[in-house]
Amino acid sequence: MKRWLKISLSVLVGTLLLAFGALLWKTHTEAHNLINAPIITRDLPDKTPAEYNLPFEDVTVTNPDGQKLVGWFIPSQNGAVIIMQHGYKSTRSELLNEAEMMYRHGYGVLLSTVRAHDYSEGQLITFGMYEVDDMEAWYQYLLTRNDIDPEKIGIIGNSYGGMLAIQFAAQNKNIKALVANSAFSSLNDTVATSVQHFTGLPEFPFVPLIAFWAERETGFKKEDIDATKWIADISPRPVFLMQGGADTVISVTSGQRLYDAAGEPKELWFEPALGHVEFDTERAAEYETRVVAFFDQYLLGK
């Protein structure tokens, strides 16, 4: 009997160790995949501004780490320009619909990319720790152009790009107005929702371990990525936030958390029935009216 118990206990311990080892391997692999984007795995642009009948230039900048970043510039007719920043593992073509809309109203558009996305160089995604330097490189590019007014620069960001836009505008006082569509408020707030969306794995026990491995590989803590700590620094420049109540990519509390943390002037457009970054497609007419009016007021003084 004792011998049988010893064998059973050994089998149980061995099984548990194998299961734990498999859990560590799985979560480490998922974390690595979430924060790394070699170009052979990426989504790449499926359209260009030409397909929207927009005049444009292919433009590039080099970030402080020596990585080449790609973008499109659409000329301004009124001296104002809007930087448009795509979301997580997306491309600049994501915002072509918004670019065409703003161009019709006289605005120039810079469709920017950050490292490890689109055709830009780099592989590691750090959720703003280093990507903010990429945004600064694009801003410096705009200052080299003589066809825009440096006092009339706004920014639109989608999702992860919205968080980057908040972080960058908080640091750069020359960004005069910001629109963030479905931006996550912080990694702590959204990590469970986002990891489940992108991996299909349940929160426990996977999400804490995936976050642990991601922190080890990138060198930052989840607490470091928190747009609620940055957004107040944008005031008195205006922010316009959008959040859908049916969002399954980020926490649905993100918009309210950001709004509560922001200074004036601020606006939150919450739509209970909308999913992630659906405002420009599911509420296209209202989106155009409200976004254009926002930039007209704060960039053009209309």
N-to-C SSE string, H for helix and E for strand: HEEEHEHEHEHHEHEHH
Q: Give the rounded overall mean pLDDT.
A: 94
The number of domains is 1
Beta strand count:
8
CATH architecture name? 3-Layer(aba) Sandwich
Strand content: 15-25%
Tally the helices.
Answer: 9
User: At the third CATH level, what is the topology name?
Assistant: Rossmann fold
State the secondary-structure class: alpha/beta
Poorly predicted spans:
none
| Largest β sheet strand count, sense and barrel closure | 8 strands, mixed
Rg over alpha carbons? 22 Å
Can you tell me the CATH superfamily?
Alpha/Beta hydrolase fold, catalytic domain
What does this structure look like?
With 302 residues, the chain is an alpha/beta fold. It has a single domain (36-186, 225-299), classed as Alpha/Beta hydrolase fold, catalytic domain (Rossmann fold), CATH 3.40.50.1820. Helix content is 41%, strand content 15%. It is built from 9 helices and 8 strands. The chain has helices at residues 2-35, 96-104, 131-143, 160-171, 187-199, 203-218, 254-261, 279-282, 284-299; strands at 57-62, 68-74, 81-85, 108-112, 153-158, 177-181, 239-244, 266-271. It has an 8-stranded mixed β-sheet, with helices on both faces. Helix 1 packs across helix 6, helix 3 (131-143) crosses helix 4 and helix 5 packs across helix 6. The longest helix has 34 residues, at 2-35. It is globular, with a radius of gyration of 22 Å. The relative contact order is 0.13. The mean pLDDT is 94.
